[in-house]
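FORM 12-B: Structure-to-Sequence Request
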């Protein structure tokens, strides 16, 4: 798979995992596991990139005597998810064209 496409898909998957409620690294990995395999090192690279892009914010809170980072989707991150839905329809149409699976109407 094209690296740029895969990177974009992984970013959107992480945003989708935290769209409903704030979450932390291990929980995000568990939430996306049914759909994709994501290592901790890959996840934290994605989280840093999304934070730098202002698509999420981070806060620390104590949990079990340790600090845990919780990630929160921003308005810009939510917009990215909405944009993805539109873009995905274009990707599906291209896939159908390439594979010859277009709807015959």
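FORM 12-B RESPONSE
SEQUENCE OUT:
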């Amino acid at each position: 798979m094209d690296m740029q496409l895969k990177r974009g898909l992984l970013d959107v998957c992480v945003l989708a995992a935290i769209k409903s409620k704030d979450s932390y690294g291990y929980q995000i990995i568990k939430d996306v596991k049914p759909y994709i395999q994501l290592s901790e090192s890959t996840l934290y690279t994605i989280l840093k990139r999304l934070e730098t892009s202002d698509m999420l914010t981070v806060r620390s809170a104590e949990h079990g005597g340790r600090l845990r980072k919780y990630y929160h989707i921003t308005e810009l991150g939510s917009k990215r998810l909405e944009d993805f839905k539109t873009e995905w329809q274009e990707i599906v149409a291209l896939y159908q064209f390439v594979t010859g699976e277009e709807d015959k109407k």
